[in-house]
Known about the structure:
With 234 residues, the chain is of the alpha/beta class. Helices cover 21% and strands 31% of the residues. It has a single domain, classed as Nitrilase/N-carbamoyl-D-aminoacid amidohydrolase, CATH 3.60.110.
Amino acid sequence: MRTPLTVAAAQPACTGGDVRGNAAEHARIVRAAGARLVVFPELSLTGYELDADAVSPEDDELDPIVAACAETTSVALVGAPAEGEDGRAHIAMLRVTGAGAELVYRKSYLGGEEPARFAPGDRPVAIDVDGWRVGLGICKDTGVEQHVADTAALAPDLYAAGLVHLPEELAIQDERGVRIARTTGAHVAFASFAGPTGGGFDRTAGVSSIWAPDGTPLARAGAEPGEFVCAVLG
């Protein structure tokens, strides 16, 4: 029998470009949440700084998150610019556990000025957490019908995405969460930055949320940085 999965959607306070300081904030939230899976926003380790240096999964700046995950037996999905196996820069999602970090997903659909620095990923991804299939997405991915359909084909039990949205885009954020839940038949966890996060984002939407497969909201954060919400998925 698959055990229930406790999921947290987090919106850490962020200082643009300060990987070490942001990692400490990630570690704080991992410990405070005590969840098996903790989802963080797009580019959460650097802020939305498109010229930030790539973060390697081997960087010792990630050690505080690794240590927090070891203490809590958590899996953290964190956002960072990273170099893929193809040698190109990507907007990526790293999976961090007590054993270390690895790149697990590369943003498929880029927007704005992102293509000038980053290459898109080339496939949908679902990872396993305690028998739960977790489909992955990053920001613009969530609004692209093809991405949602391709991820739904992987039969996820949970769809987890990191976001950066403006406050006036909150209605779009919520509409996408509900639509993805109903399209995939899966729970959805959106971790959305709150407060300033670099790259021209002096304000962001926050309200990180978790939805049931029918689109019913299970947990919603406020608009302040440093918050997180949790839900037990059964």
